[in-house]
Amino acid sequence: MLPTIRRFPQVESTQDTARMLLDVEHVNVGHIVMADSQTGGRGRYGRSWLSPYGGLYATLILKPRPLISIASGLAVSRALDGFDVHALLKWPNDIEHEGRKLGGILVERTGEVALVGIGVNLDGEPLSSATSTRRAGANVRRGDLLLAIWQHLEGGEPGEDLLASYRKRSATLGRRVRVTVEHQRIIEGLAIDVDEAGRLLVDVGDHIEETSSGSCEHIG
Ligand code: BTN
Hints:
The chain is an alpha+beta fold. It has two domains: 4-167, 2-Layer Sandwich (BirA Bifunctional Protein, domain 2); 173-218, SH3 type barrels, CATH 2.30.30. It is 21% helix and 35% strand. The N and C termini lie far apart (43 Å).
């Protein structure tokens, strides 16, 4: 099924525009809200997401499903493969290219749907800690990338072991990590696996810690 794409020149956040369209126009799963720029783009953990002209900013309205956050990261990195940009995933779903952030995903639930917000730096000048597809040497057309992401996410690969595919693209497994979880609790150790619920398992020396959410930093 092809998505219905609603494109706006500028919005505060495509996540909020999607919520508004769900409420006011009763749009449903299968819609994508896309903007040329955002004035109040949101990242995970209340961070802001700089969204100047020249990036991909889109919210996919999907039916909720298990591991949607993992599946979304996988879909974005697979879609980028099609442009010869081989990105890895920092747990849970940051898109990284050569250790720099290329994109991010914010998954929110509202009513009966999941809002999968995807931001990818394409042509703009990214922050020094970040990168873009242009910097990675690729000329990526936003619409083509968006459609490829949709196809990977909604078409899927029948019978595929999602976690096995995710693990192969993980930039985190096998690295030392510092994960800041709720209430500023910090887990530091070796990232050893991602389990069937999408939790990161960290060997902290004398036991294994598992966390389903958190901001992850690679420290070794
Ligand atoms: C992160 O890495 O913290 C997630 C960033 C998600 C950014 C995208 S851009 C499209 C959508 N609208 C938003 O306000 N945020 C997401």
